[in-house]
Amino acid sequence: xxxxxxxxxxxxxxxxxRLSCAASGLTFTRYNMGWFRxxxxxxREFVAQITWKSSRVYADSxxxxxxIFRDNAKNTVFLEMNSLGPDDAAVYYCAAGRRDxxxxxxxxxxxxxxxxxx
Length: 118
Prior knowledge:
This protein is mainly β. The chain is built from no helices and eleven strands.
């Protein structure tokens, strides 16, 4: 299984970014997909999940600002991030799991760095 994350970069506070994660080596439509992030000196934390049925759940800290969606035809999951602030700066990882990714992740992507300038 490979999860290739991309789309990170430098953005000004208040700006937007879209992250992508292309999956291969798995039956994408059977997997829940999620995003986690890890800031320097902090633990990795859950950000968002979209289930194989396209149900969505978000961390409280990003609710209303971030949106997760998937394109099953392209085996890709996206994270649209708006109103970015300094607390959103982190390495973002995509994740795949057969169950709720908050309970367990089967496969991790390599991470993509998001930097927010004030």
